[in-house]
Automatic annotation (TrEMBL):
InterPro entries assigned: ATPase_NBD, FGGY_C, FGGY_Carb_Kinase, FGGY_N, Rhamnulokinase
UniProt protein name: Rhamnulokinase family protein
SUPFAM superfamilies recorded: Actin-like ATPase domain
Pfam name, any one: FGGY_N
Keyword terms of this UniProt record: ATP-binding, Carbohydrate metabolism, Kinase, Nucleotide-binding, Rhamnose metabolism, Transferase, Xylose metabolism
TM region positions: none
Keyword Protease attached: no
Domain Carbohydrate kinase FGGY C-terminal: 240-428
Carbohydrate kinase FGGY N-terminal domain location: 61-229
Species in which this protein is naturally found: Planomonospora alba
Length: 475
């Protein structure tokens, strides 16, 4: 059987996709988002699991199933294998101030030298130090590992997602036991590690009865960005990527980590990719700003807004998309307007103007991350591959090409699911290696190329506005 199913969970939606050797088909798509429960912002992971089972029923028999999701969030199991509570959402505020306390205790430079990880307030290491139920925990499972456990009964941690915790040794790709001990975290909760392509186990008998067929579950690159980068349709090493959805993860693929002080100061991360590669990147806030803005404009159609935004005056207002004020859910247009006023700019006057502000600001975020990644790593970049849902946004792709001064190849839109199933196909012996996976990705769907056509001097000036504002504390 050459059919493989990808369970692909994103921060705003989930899907079950099927690969038949020729292309992807969607078996089921469902919404995802935070819920407020027991005083915290959480993921309703049991509801997600019900949707996954429904999707697998609709998918029909497959040779293998793989699971990927966003990073850093986890569930705790007790000694009987019961989930102690729904995972806390990374946008919850429980980790406020913890990163600073950890840096004071261990040292920011030492943390980076061990894990190679950028400092984000919601990194798993900080979440675990905010936990109040560690004494009752027997295992910590990141979200895709939790789903795989429910499907098979097997406990483990896949290495690409484990590399986002801040507790994996970036050199050895083993748990950083010394760091774990110094932070006072219980080593017992860190499960055995798996690599992409490793077998996990067969569906539990009760799960097989519920979906109507049985199959094995295979470890894939379970961090969704790692799967997306595996499906970047590049034909050589001189590329940058932007995996663009709720978040934009922008950087380059390298054979080894970059652990310089300059990289740490720039807050670049070294995350594990398949076949020993390193995803050297930085998080940019991504289309979250647009998604939350749309929630504030009920009835507004995205296509119409994008068309109108393309006619708005360039660079009328800019914000730093990574400003902490934009992280929580809520009224995004109001926060964008407040940031504009705080930085001495006239706020956008209409929804299309807000959209233009968001997309130009995001394109500048892509530019900064890609240029810094190239400079810090020494990797020359000839083209930017923009994959994921953002590749459907023609205005964003065009602005990113103009901002970077490089061609942008947009697509595949379902790069994460595609990378997921291609790892499974390789584990089954149907694909030979990463180069063949990327060649298959290039032929799996339409790709669109955007050549830079904007005014380079204008983009330089826009970048200078944000740089100067940041230096002065304005941005």
């Amino acid at each position: 059987m050459t059919r493989f199913a990808a369970v692909d969970l994103g921060a705003s939606s989930g899907r079950v996709m099927v690969w038949d050797g020729r292309g992807l088909t969607e078996a089921h798509r469902f919404p995802n988002g935070p819920v407020r429960a027991r005083g915290r912002l959480r993921w309703d992971v049991r509801a997600l699991y019900r949707e996954i089972l429904h999707g697998l029923r609709r998918a029909g028999p497959v040779a293998s199933v793989g699971v990927d999701s966003w990073a850093v969030d986890y569930g705790l199991l007790d000694a009987s294998g019961r989930l102690l509570d729904d995972p806390v959402h990374y946008r919850d505020d429980r980790t406020a101030g913890i990163a600073e306390r950890v840096a004071a205790r261990v040292g920011a430079a030492e943390l980076y030298d061990v894990s190679g990880l950028q400092v984000l307030p919601f990194n798993t290491v900080y979440q675990l130090l905010a936990e109040d139920r560690l004494d009752a925990a027997a295992a910590m499972l990141l979200v895709p590992d939790l789903i795989a456990y429910w499907l098979t009964g097997e406990i483990g941690a896949e290495v690409t997602n484990a590399s986002t915790t801040g507790l994996l040794d970036v050199r050895t790709r083993a748990w950083a036991s010394g760091l774990i001990g110094r932070l006072g975290l219980p080593e017992r909760i860190f499960p055995p590690l798996r690599r992409p392509g490793d077998p996990i186990g067969s569906l539990r008998p009760e799960t097989a009865r519920e979906v109507g067929w049985t199959s094995r579950v295979t470890a894939v690159a379970s961090h969704d960005t790692a799967s997306a980068v595996a499906a970047v349709p590049a034909d050589g090493p001189r590329f940058a990527y932007v995996s663009c959805g709720t978040w934009s993860l922008a950087g380059v693929e390298l054979p080894a980590p970059v652990l310089t002080e300059a990289g740490r100061a720039a807050n670049f991360t070294n995350e594990a990719g398949i076949d020993g590669t390193v995803r050297y990147l930085r998080n940019v806030m991504g289309l979250w700003l647009l998604q939350e803005s749309l929630r504030a404009w009920p009835g507004a159609g995205l296509e119409g807004l994008l068309e109108a935004a393309g006619r708005e005056r360039p660079f009328a207002a800019l914000v730093d998309p990574d400003a902490p004020v934009f992280l929580p859910p809520g009224d995004m247009p109001a926060r964008i307007a407040a940031e504009c006023r705080r930085t001495g700019q006239e706020p956008p006057a209409s929804p299309p103007a807000f959209v233009r502000c968001v997309l130009e600001s995001l394109a500048l975020g892509h530019r900064r991350a890609i240029r810094q990644a190239a400079a810090l790593s020494g990797r020359e970049v000839d083209v930017v591959h923009l994959v994921g849902g953002g590749s459907r946004n023609a205005l964003l792709c065009r602005l990113t090409a103009d901002a970077c001064g490089l061609p942008v190849v947009a697509g595949p839109a379902e790069a994460t699911a595609l990378g997921n199933v291609l790892v499974q196909a390789r584990a089954a012996g149907l694909v030979s290696g990463l180069a063949e996976m990327r060649a298959l990705a290039a032929g799996a769907g339409p790709l669109r190329r955007y050549e830079p056509s904007g005014d380079a001097a204008a983009w330089d000036a826009a970048e200078a506005r944000i740089t100067a504002g940041s230096a002065a504390g304005a941005f």
